[in-house]
Amino acid sequence: MISLETQQKLLDIKEKVQISQNEMADKLNITFFPYDEKAVGENILNFKRKLEESFLRLNVNVIPYKDSLHRIRLSKVLMRVIKILLNNFLFVVESIYKTPERIFVNWGVLVNTFKRTRIKKGISVVALGENTSWNLPMDTTSSFTESSVITILDLPSNIKDDSSFYEHFDTAMGLFAYHMTNIVIAVKEDKWILYNFNASHPTYPIEDNIDKYVLKGLIPKIVAPIRPVKFDEFTVKNEVFDPMDEHHKYAVKDMLESGNLLEKSGLYPQGKKIDSLPFRNGYYRWIGKIHLDNRNGMSYGFLARQLPTVLSSLIPLEQAKGQFGEAIQPDKDYFEYEKSLYLIIDLPTGTFAMKVPEVWVLSQRSGCNKTKMDPERDLIKLGLVSGKLYLQSSKKVKLNQNYKTSFDTKLILANALGNTIIASILKHFQKDSEFAKLVESNGLAICHWHGYINEKSLPKNFLVHGNQNPNVSCSSPQSAIYALDGKLRAFIESMGGGNDFAGDIHVEPHHGTNIIFPSLQQFGEYIVNNPDTSTLGNKYLQADK
After folding, report:
1. What is the pLDDT of residue 153?
2. Helix or strand or coil: residue 517?
3. Which residue pairs from 161-166 have beta carbons closer than 8 angstroms and sit at least 24 positions apart in sequence?
4. I need a labelling partner for 521 at 20 to 30 A (CA). Which of 11, 77, 180, 261 fits?
5. Composition of the chain by helix, strand, coil, percent to 5
6. Cα separation, 344 vs 357, whole angstroms
7. pLDDT, tens digit, 9 for 90 and up, residues 406-418
8. Beta carbons of 11 and 487 less than 8 angstroms apart
9. How far does CA 396 lie from the centroid of its chain?
């Protein structure tokens, strides 16, 4: 298959990404926040001991708390204070004559800035039980993006074996806000539940050797945390698009007319507003918004429409070498030629070069009502062209820092790119491929929800992949790579099997499912007409069986 380097190039992922759970364990640096044993319950202490022993067995770098700290230079503190004051002054000035694009920095940050002893960047921290305000691990971390907070708590009394998805969801969101933590581990005598922002609730037994659960379930969520694409990572196209013109209106119509069906499906719950969560004070609420890229809330699932695209021709590698010359390097499976990106791909029938097709997707802005959207204000056009991210607004929207794309933007584009690569291969080998015709003439629906498909209800000629992947967080670069790599591997392994490829189902364990369908309307009909097909939560997840 294509290399990790090439996948990152295709998806505009620049940072080093750990793909296997063992690589993640080896990369993880962790420390334990100071605690008073008399103030922490026995179940928490028992689990902490087992967790620390497991970390050591798995080659995690466990760092004594005193060694995890560093002291920030006073000059750096003063410079940060000046920047905060200047930012807030400019915010107030901008507010007089327009909606400001900069973010007002909560005054509590100034107080926290003078805490010069902090946990170093790249070290995550485990806290035990309840800590007091202004003495939470979040108050001492140096980086919200490079360090995670994991809090071990007693299992809330309202959570039972038969608790619903919504009860787990509401409980977890409240715990995240109150304890200012990225991950909650809720423990009882015989089990532990792992909550993170994936809106899932995997439940594991407490055993002497819990390594397999820590390695696959917990460590990936720490090493691959939530990381939504930021506005400045896009190239923003100057021209706007008209949702109702000939090129877009059929896709917009599908998004609108499928709304009632998809609402009936129950797979797209109402999101959470940041201001509705039980933060202890305004400072912590501000931190929560910053952690979520200054969003006002979180909604779960996405509905997107991949637009038609021109498919690429496959060129036998020896012929490509004559055509592209020194642009092809022997140790790489991609190359660039005349500002275009090309892929070299091994297939059962030989090795081929192909121009990477450009993809464009209509997606909904983060936080909007997925099943009752306003096409003039809720639609964003996402592009991936020669390994670069593009963003385009509709004619009634002005894009700025306050307008957010889906958390799963790169996952959406990874699916779209994989679809075009597969369609190009199918067109080369099967001139009458319905999937290739669909991609080229009408595009596809790309859907994600926080549940799984009953294996007894799989649509015909769909490939399933991802069940055994590490349990990473939504919006992590790993999730996009798993989508692209899994899709291509599953398709290439199926070549020659005699089945007509119709789409794929990408399972993200303890996150949800991504599915490709000819249209959103057909996806809605498939779910609603087969009520035992899927539900929110872990009911049909095969990963832990």
Report:
1. 97
2. strand
3. 164/537, 165/199, 165/201, 165/269, 165/450, 165/451, 165/535, 165/536, 165/537, 166/269, 166/536
4. 11
5. 35, 20, 40
6. 13
7. 889 999 999 999 9
8. no
9. 28
pLDDT of residue 402: 58
Using CA atoms, how far apart are residues 368 and 370, in angstroms rounded to an integer?
Answer: 6
**CA dihedral defined by 34, 37, 38, 43, rounded to 10 degrees?**
120
Question: What count of residues does the chain have?
Answer: 545
Q: Name the nearest CA neighbour of 456 among 540, 516, 526.
A: 540
Residue 516: other Cβ atoms inside 10 A: 26
* Cα R_g (the chain), whole angstroms: 24
User: Model pTM?
Assistant: 0.92
Q: How far apart are CA 58 and CA 213, in angstroms?
A: 11
Burial of 239 (0-12, 13-18, 19+ CB in 10 A): exposed
Q: Are 484 and 504 within 8 A, CB to CB?
A: no
All domains in the chain, ordered by first residue: 19-72+116-223 (no CATH), 231-309+358-536 (3.40.225)
The reported pLDDT for the residue numbered 400 is 65
DSSP-assigned beta bridge partners for residue 351: 346
Q: Round to whole Å and give the CA distance between 263 and 268.
A: 7
CA distances from 393 to 259, 374, 387, 403, 507 (A): 22, 13, 20, 10, 30
Strand order in the sheet with 302-306: 235-236, 388-393, 379-385, 359-364, 302-306, 444-449, 512-517, 503-508, 462-465
Nearest to 297 by CA among 270, 317, 269, 274: 274
Q: Kindly give, in sequence order, each residue whose CB lies less than 8 Å from that of residue 134, ignoring residues fewer than 6 positions away.
A: none
Provide the pairing of β-strand 149-154 with 124-128.
Answer: parallel
pLDDT digits (tens, 9 = 90+) for 246-268: 999 999 999 999 998 999 999 98
Place of tokens 């305004």: 282
